[in-house]
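Usage

Read records sequentially. Each one opens with the input sequence:
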Amino acid sequence: MLACYEHENQGKLIDLPPVPIGDPDHTPSKDDVGRIDTLLGGHPQDVPHIYELASPITHVHPGCPPTLLTQGEQDFLVPVTATCALYSKLVESGVLAINVVYPWTDHAFDLLWPQVSPPAQSALYDVDPFLALLVNKD
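and closes with the structure output:
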């Protein structure tokens, strides 16, 4: 989550007032959209332990399940470097992991027209051999 916070340059929001959660009298503005500090209850310097707990890399250990990571190279939300770091930590922990990065592909590439999107079709294809690998592991 810290990588996303930094990737999206959310530090520029530090002077904005906190967004009241569940306040029926608060009308969100366009500045409130996508704020990680609202999701996690503050900025990284305010609640570093929450950012750590919300980050998948924190929870990697040798008992993690086999993991298939798929991501677009042009992801505007999650930096590819964070996914690569997660992949490396999984492998270092002895977890079977595969990391597939699709070139010229953005975040949520599989949501819009997956029937005609080459990266979405490729992602669907990549799941099949990954599952076959798990089934035939023994």
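Summary fields computed downstream for this record:
- The longest strand covers residues 67-72.
- Helices lie at 2-7, 36-40, 48-53, 80-92, 118-135.
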